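User: Okay, second chain of the day. Same drill as before: sequence in, structure tokens out.
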Amino acid sequence: MPDELRALREETIALLKELPGVPSCLTVRAGDCSVEVAFPDGAPRPAPSVEKDPTPDDELLAITAPLVGTYYAAPAPGSEPFVKVGDHVEPGQNVAIVEAMKLMNHVTAEWPGEVVEVPVGDGEPVEFGQPLVLIRPSPG
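Assistant: Same drill. Structure tokens below.
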């Protein structure tokens, strides 16, 4: 991926994280610069919250979708998934891909821990902030 495209992608993800809700549409153009954000019914709606384990003392952390797109559990059709329930992940490890506007956006773990749940099916559409992988953080 060219550096300019990578920088644009990172800036777009940062913008999405700062929005007051989940947009229904995001348009980014590089030539002559343009950013358009639309919300359903014209009003932002809150992003989904981080889910918790039923055990009150044992919180789960959610690795969430960085943008609206299509979730892929594996690097290619027919390949083994990046992670499965019971796997241990480390920070920076790829756990999924979210495709948006023909760009494959790698989703990585932010914390070490055990994969407890993958609540999204391969090929399903996802919203910004939607939990993709639930992690029980490693003690530390």
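The mean pLDDT is 80.

User: Thanks, on to the next one.
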